[in-house]
Amino acid sequence: MENQNRFYIYVLCLSITAYTSAFLLTTSSDRATAGRDSIILTVPGTFDKDKLNGSRWTCGSQIQDKVSNPVQVYVDIPITKVDLTSNLSNENPIKVVSGSKHLFICTANASQSAARIQWYLSGTNITDQASAQPSICSTGCETVISSSILSYIGNITDNGKTMYCTAVNGEGQSVNSTMKSIDILYQPIISDIPDYNVTEGNTLSIFPIIDANPQPTFLVESSR
Ligand SMILES: *[C@@H]1O[C@H](CO)[C@@H](O)[C@H](O)[C@H]1NC(C)=O
Ligand SMILES: *[C@@H]1O[C@H](CO)[C@@H](O)[C@H](O)[C@H]1NC(C)=O
Ligand SMILES: *[C@@H]1O[C@H](CO)[C@@H](O)[C@H](O)[C@H]1NC(C)=O
Ligand SMILES: *[C@@H]1O[C@H](CO)[C@@H](O)[C@H](O)[C@H]1NC(C)=O
Ligand SMILES: *[C@@H]1O[C@H](CO)[C@@H](O)[C@H](O)[C@H]1NC(C)=O
Ligand SMILES: *[C@@H]1O[C@H](CO)[C@@H](O)[C@H](O)[C@H]1NC(C)=O
Ligand SMILES: *[C@@H]1O[C@H](CO)[C@@H](O)[C@H](O)[C@H]1NC(C)=O
């Protein structure tokens, strides 16, 4: 059950001054922001998400009957994962034939707010080449699944580069997908064969310059 998720919220109950006995309650999802002198409570280890969301909390001293300001707590379900897949295979490196079209799909798992998906190829932002897909509802629209599709055409200059995507939600939380190496397979290109006019009876030697990935193991020259 989604509602049985564990939430950790650090509650800071600050005694403002020793004389007034006023208390200040603040909450933080980050323990590091908690002050050294504050009381840190983890409320509670396991809590029903729906009851916790929007709940009001106060703290104070039982002896002096003073309470702090009330603090309202909201629950946010952050993005925890983003997957980079391709419509061909999920091997790594991904083999793409030069010049052929390949779809890469980046899917962020359910989060509170829609995520903005960005694409990178060896550090270069290639988000412009992708198209964001409409968000899909999850668990009765309580959370959404965001995705983006990158239509990629194999380019020799990208051989060995790494592709990954990131998902950033409204709160600025960001997660990275795994890195996928791109292996561009290209057809042997025979270049620099000069024009020869073969005169009958003469022997012609041709030394082609072959550029291919993977290197061809043998080359068959067809004769006419
Ligand atoms: C928490 O409550 C707020 C405001 O009512 C709402 O927008 C949000 O979706 C709720 N969060 C969850 C996880 O249900
Ligand atoms: C992957 O997508 C490309 C582009 O739409 C398409 O040409 C190709 O057939 C697809 N491959 C598979 C295995 O679906
Ligand atoms: C997101 O994916 C992670 C890892 O698969 C999973 O543990 C988590 O429950 C998922 N979160 C949501 C909100 O679907
Ligand atoms: C990446 O490119 C997209 C589209 O041009 C842009 O909206 C986004 O801000 C860029 N991201 C970064 C981190 O620069
Ligand atoms: C391959 O990438 C290079 C460098 O980004 C670019 O100049 C070239 O036009 C691309 N080739 C094709 C066929 O898209
Ligand atoms: C994502 O990867 C980039 C490049 O390696 C790195 O700079 C960034 O810190 C990573 N972000 C996260 C949230 O891990
Ligand atoms: C081969 O012969 C053609 C036709 O006679 C001529 O146009 C061409 O220049 C010749 N090429 C070379 C490399 O001699």
TrEMBL record:
It is found in: Membrane. It comes from the Eukaryota. It holds the Pfam family C2-set_2. GO terms for cellular component: cell-cell junction; plasma membrane. GO terms for biological process: cell-cell adhesion. Keywords: Disulfide bond, Glycoprotein, Immunoglobulin domain, Membrane, Transmembrane, Transmembrane helix. Gene3D superfamilies: Immunoglobulins. Residues 78-183 form the Ig-like domain. InterPro entries: CD80_C2-set, Cell_adhesion_signaling, Ig-like_dom, Ig-like_dom_sf, Ig-like_fold. The chain crosses the membrane at residues 7-26. One of its GO terms (molecular function) is cell adhesion molecule binding. PANTHER family: IRREGULAR CHIASM C-ROUGHEST PROTEIN-RELATED (PTHR11640:SF31), NEPHRIN (PTHR11640). This is Ig-like domain-containing protein. It comes from Mytilus edulis (Blue mussel). The lineage of its organism: Eukaryota, Metazoa, Spiralia, Lophotrochozoa, Mollusca.
